[in-house]
Structures are given as structure tokens and as C-alpha cells.
């Protein structure tokens, strides 16, 4: 007896099973890597249908420094795009969702040339770690600044309930798309458009504030809109992408503000108008050639990469430096002036060092290292915020050897980028 043909829904069922398996594999990978533990965030990520929240996504087709850049917009409705799009959505990396500030709803898939990506969804691992740190609870009022694709808003709705969640983005196209796609998933947070640095006082105070982009300092509005026992999480960094910091701001039941600045391995990209420096391929080639560099041996070693709080202090106290993490030895450049440093252990306990340029980067590192050691080699810092909006960082032990102010320069921290 011949087998009966598959029913009309067999293809759809097979596709749904494939997507469900990819989602489960993503969550399992996060657990194996130690970035996700049992609890509401894990359950929310396991339930979140990312292919319905991010129905289209960009993939870059050009080399990193090729001009003009070339992109393809993949679409879940196009069968030929689904395999690659499934890998993007559940592979764990950032998902690029907007090009050159375009409307997101109603776009035609296909190639794009030139321009830049203006909104994205952050890496899943970083999002999961931060959401767990936020400690979301049912019934909390949450302000999600930087809507992006709406992933953090979706998780907040799933855990806390839609009624208390406000998601804010500077771009109305991002807001419109998130509102539409979240509603398709059954979530209806308050989705609003406006400058991120102003927060959203209409629904304040908030028990939790989550920020999906980096800022040079914590805007005062975020602190003022925080409820007693509330918490703000935001990446606070300088212009270098090499050594990010995470600000954790809490408000005591009595209304006192307490802050901590932690050095972290990964952080969000900067907000709109907050430019980040980088080392170009041409600069790396000059460093590799070593032309004009001054070489010497040193028995003073820099603190290891794992001493992230030290390197965070380097970024703050000696700004303008960028680490080349792709090298298997220490390579740091100062793009603004062309100074650079290479340093390799020579196996005898000493380091072979080469420096070039008006800045002596090796001397700068050793100077900060001495101050860091004098302060007790702190692994995190106190972040001080006073009523007048002044913000400064000090070693948690209170030693004066390691203190710096956070810039008051305009940050243009409109909500955007990565949620």
C-alpha cells in the first residue's frame, strides 16, 4: 500500500520545525558558553520568533574597506533568502536592519550600494547577559532606550508585561517597524520616537532602564527618571572601541544614587553623533613595516589583557588609543597623530618594544599602570553622580591615584542602534 501524500501544510510544518531547531540551538549555545542561565530571560529568548521580529536583514557583500560598500537586503518571504537569513538571525551575531535611515516597513529586498547601516540588533550573547543583569520582574516599569529591532522590548514585555514597557528610538521608521512587528508577536509596549538622552518622563519613574548604545556619560534625565530601588544599565566609554565600560546606576530606597563602572569585554556601539576612532588598514600596514620605529627591551610588563579595569583606565586617562585585537601580540595605535606601539614578550621575562610618533604609548601605559597599582589594582570603579550632573570615576578603594571626570561634551545620544 503506497504512502499517503503529505498534507498541504507539510512544507510550512517543516519550515517551522527548522526554525524552532535553530532557535533552540542558539539558546543552547549561549548556555554552553556560560552567557545564559535558567530563568525568565532564557525562556523569553527560547520563545522569541526572531524571524517575525526581523523579517528583513542586511548582509554585507563588500570587503571591510571597499568603497562604495555593497549590501544585500534579505527577505524572509523570499525562499531563496531563507537559509542565509536563518543563519543571520540565529547565529548570535549582530543583525543589520536599517540602511541610511530608510523606512523599514514596505521595503523591497535586493542590493544596496554606498551609505551605512544605521540600526541593528545587538549580539545575542551580550543582550542576554545584560538582560540577566537587569533582573527584570513581573509588573516592573521598564524604559528601553534604543529600540533597534525590538529584541530587548520583546523580552521585557514577555517578562514584565506589556503595560509597563516603554521603548524609545530617535528614528520614527525604527519605532514604526518595531511597533508593527511586536504587535504581530502579541506584544504592545508603548513605542515612542524621541531623543534618547531625554528619556521618556511621561511614564516615569522606571524600575529598570536599559540602553542599547554607548554614551560618554550617563544623561541626567535617566537618573532623574529612575524609581527607588531602580537600576540603569548603559555602556559608558571613550571614543575607542577597544576597552568598553558598563555603568550600573542604582537608586536606594531613600533616593541616593550609587554607581559602578565595570570594565567589560564587549559593549554596544556608540549612539548617534558619538564618533568612534579606528585603525585603518593603511595604518596597520605602516605599523607592521615598522618604518622609523624606535626599538628597545623592557623588563616592565604591561598588565595582562584580563586586567580590563586597568585598560579601561588607559582609555580614560590616555585617550585616543586603539588596540588591534587581531594581532597575537600588543599592538596599539593613536590614529589622530600616527603614533603606535608594538610589544612582544621575548621568552626571558623581558619585552621587545617598538614605538613611533609624538606620543610614547609605552611610557603612557606604564604611567597608568603605576597609578593603577598604587590604587590597589581595582577590578571595577565607583561612578559618582551628583545633583548638579557632575560625574567622575574613582578607584573603588577610594585612593586618589586613579580618578577621572566623564566628559560634558555634547554626546548627541539620540536613541538608536541596537535593541
From TrEMBL:
<dbReference type="Pfam" id="PF01135">
    <property type="entry name" value="PCMT"/>
</dbReference>
<keyword id="KW-0949">S-adenosyl-L-methionine</keyword>
<dbReference type="GO" id="GO:0005737">
    <property type="term" value="C:cytoplasm"/>
</dbReference>
<keyword id="KW-0489">Methyltransferase</keyword>
<protein>
    <recommendedName>
        <fullName>Protein-L-isoaspartate O-methyltransferase</fullName>
        <ecNumber>2.1.1.77</ecNumber>
    </recommendedName>
</protein>
<dbReference type="GO" id="GO:0004719">
    <property type="term" value="F:protein-L-isoaspartate (D-aspartate) O-methyltransferase activity"/>
</dbReference>
<keyword id="KW-0808">Transferase</keyword>
<dbReference type="GO" id="GO:0032259">
    <property type="term" value="P:methylation"/>
</dbReference>
<dbReference type="InterPro" id="IPR029063">
    <property type="entry name" value="SAM-dependent_MTases_sf"/>
</dbReference>
<keyword id="KW-0963">Cytoplasm</keyword>
<dbReference type="InterPro" id="IPR000682">
    <property type="entry name" value="PCMT"/>
</dbReference>
<comment type="similarity">
    <text>Belongs to the methyltransferase superfamily. L-isoaspartyl/D-aspartyl protein methyltransferase family.</text>
</comment>
Amino acid at each position: 500500500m503506497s504512502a499517503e501524500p503529505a498534507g498541504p501544510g507539510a512544507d510550512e510544518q517543516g519550515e517551522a520545525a527548522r526554525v524552532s531547531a535553530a532557535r533552540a540551538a542558539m539558546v543552547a549555545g549561549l548556555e554552553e558558553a556560560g552567557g545564559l542561565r535558567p530563568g525568565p530571560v532564557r525562556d523569553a529568548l527560547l520563545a522569541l520568533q526572531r524571524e517575525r521580529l526581523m523579517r528583513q536583514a542586511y548582509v554585507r557583500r563588500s570587503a571591510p574597506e571597499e568603497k562604495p560598500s555593497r549590501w544585500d537586503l534579505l527577505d524572509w518571504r523570499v525562499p531563496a533568502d531563507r537559509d542565509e537569513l536563518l543563519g543571520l538571525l540565529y547565529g548570535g551575531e549582530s543583525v543589520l536592519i536599517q540602511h541610511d535611515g530608510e523606512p523599514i516597513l514596505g521595503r523591497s529586498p535586493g542590493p544596496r550600494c554606498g551609505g551605512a547601516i544605521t540600526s541593528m540588533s545587538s549580539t545575542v550573547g551580550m543582550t542576554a547577559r545584560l538582560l540577566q543583569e537587569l533582573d527584570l520582574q513581573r509588573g516592573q516599569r521598564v524604559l528601553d532606550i534604543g529600540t533597534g529591532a525590538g529584541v530587548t522590548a520583546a523580552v521585557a514585555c514577555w517578562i514584565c508585561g506589556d503595560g509597563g514597557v516603554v521603548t524609545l528610538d530617535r528614528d520614527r521608521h525604527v519605532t514604526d517597524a518595531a511597533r508593527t512587528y511586536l504587535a504581530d508577536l502579541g506584544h504592545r509596549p508603548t513605542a515612542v520616537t524621541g531623543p534618547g538622552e531625554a528619556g521618556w518622563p511621561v511614564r516615569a519613574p522606571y524600575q529598570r532602564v536599559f540602553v542599547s548604545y554607548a554614551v560618554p556619560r550617563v544623561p541626567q534625565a535617566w537618573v532623574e527618571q529612575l524609581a527607588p530601588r531602580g537600576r540603569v544599565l548603559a555602556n559608558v566609554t571613550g571614543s575607542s572601541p577597544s576597552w568598553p565600560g558598563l555603568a550600573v546606576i542604582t537608586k536606594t530606597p531613600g533616593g541616593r544614587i550609587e554607581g559602578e563602572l565595570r570594565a567589560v569585554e564587549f559593549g554596544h556601539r556608540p549612539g548617534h553623533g558619538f564618533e568612534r576612532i579606528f585603525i585603518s588598514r593603511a595604518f596597520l600596514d605602516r605599523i607592521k613595516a615598522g618604518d622609523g620605529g624606535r626599538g628597545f627591551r623592557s623588563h616592565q610588563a604591561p598588565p595582562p589583557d584580563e586586567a580590563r579595569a586597568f585598560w579601561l583606565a588607559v582609555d580614560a586617562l590616555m585617550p585616543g588609543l586603539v588596540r588591534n585585537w587581531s594581532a597575537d601580540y600588543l599592538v596599539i595605535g593613536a590614529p589622530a597623530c600616527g603614533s603606535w606601539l608594538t610589544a612582544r614578550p621575548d621568552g626571558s621575562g623581558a619585552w621587545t618594544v617598538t614605538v613611533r610618533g609624538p606620543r610614547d604609548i609605552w611610557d603612557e601605559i606604564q604611567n597608568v599602570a603605576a597609578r593603577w597599582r598604587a590604587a590597589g589594582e581595582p577590578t571595577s570603579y565607583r561612578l559618582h553622580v551628583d545633583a548638579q550632573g557632575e560625574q567622575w570615576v574613582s578607584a573603588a578603594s577610594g585612593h586618589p591615584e586613579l580618578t577621572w571626570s566623564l566628559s560634558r561634551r555634547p554626546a548627541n545620544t539620540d536613541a538608536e542602534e541596537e535593541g
